[in-house]
Design brief:
129 residues; alpha+beta; Nuclear Transport Factor 2, Chain: A; 3 helices
């Protein structure tokens, strides 16, 4: 993807003005939702380093392995609880849409986030069927 392409997170902004500066460490997410969108974008463009770095060290896996057959196709935010500037925790419920070969699907999750060292980090999430 190019910086001028629409950001995969669905904000309507170009990637270079939306999530890419977070991926590059040029700025930090200011809300839990912004971090969630940046993580989705990182998955969508294959930046697993950002996904790993934005994961809380107590809960992140040792290694992330890309799923070459999976293409992320869209994101819809369903709900947010807290997660605003100055707060220490937050939750974001979302649906992330994907395609795997000819099959399409939805990942429905309520993610939990926490601030550590003045940075929002993904802690864990509850998946829904």
């Amino acid at each position: 993807m190019r910086a001028t392409d629409a950001c995969p997170c669905g904000s309507g902004e170009p990637l270079g003005r939306c999530c890419l500066p977070l991926h590059r460490g040029e700025r930090q997410a200011v809300t839990a939702e912004q971090l969630m969108r940046a993580r989705y974008s990182a998955y969508a463009i294959g930046d697993l380093d950002y996904v790993w770095q934005s994961w809380h060290p107590r809960t992140r896996p040792a290694v992330l392995t890309p799923d070459a057959g999976l293409t992320w196709t869209g994101l819809r935010i369903l709900d947010t609880v807290e997660g605003q500037p100055g707060e220490q925790t937050g939750e974001v419920e979302f649906c992330a849409y994907y395609r795997e070969g000819r099959r399409s699907g939805t990942l429905h999750e309520r993610s939990r986030f926490a601030v550590r060292a003045r940075r929002w980090l993904y802690v864990d999430g509850e998946l829904f069927d």
